[in-house]
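User: My collaborator sent over this chain with a note saying "see what the structure looks like." That's all I know about it. Can you take a look?
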Amino acid sequence: QVQLVESGGGLVQAGGSLRLSCAASGSIFSINAMGWYRQAPGKQRELVAAIGRGYTNYADSAKGRFTISRDNAKNTVYLQMNNLKPEDTAVYYCKVVATSQVYYWGQGTQVTVSS
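Assistant: Without extra context I'll predict from the sequence alone. Here is the result:
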C-alpha cells in the first residue's frame, strides 16, 4: 500500500506565498513522475505542475509564479507558490506515478487566497 501525505496548505493574502509538500511512503519502489493538481469548487481537476525524469511542466497559470521540485531520496515533491492570487484558491492534490504506471493521489490540501 502507498500513502501520500500532503502538507502546507492554508489561508494567505493575495501576493503571499505557500509551499506544499507531498511525501510518498509504503510499497512504492520507483517513482516515474510526481505532480500537483488542483480543483476549485464547481470546476474540474486540473494540472498545475509536474516533474519527471529530466522535465518539468507547468500550467500557463502557474508559469513564473510556481516552482515544482522533488527530493528523490525522500520520495517527496514540493510546490513553491509565490504571488498567489484569489483564483488560485482550490484543493491541491498530489499525484505520484510509479514506473509501473500505477498512480496514486493524495488526500488534498486546501489553499485559500484572500483578496
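A starting point for your reply to your collaborator: The chain has no helices and eleven strands.
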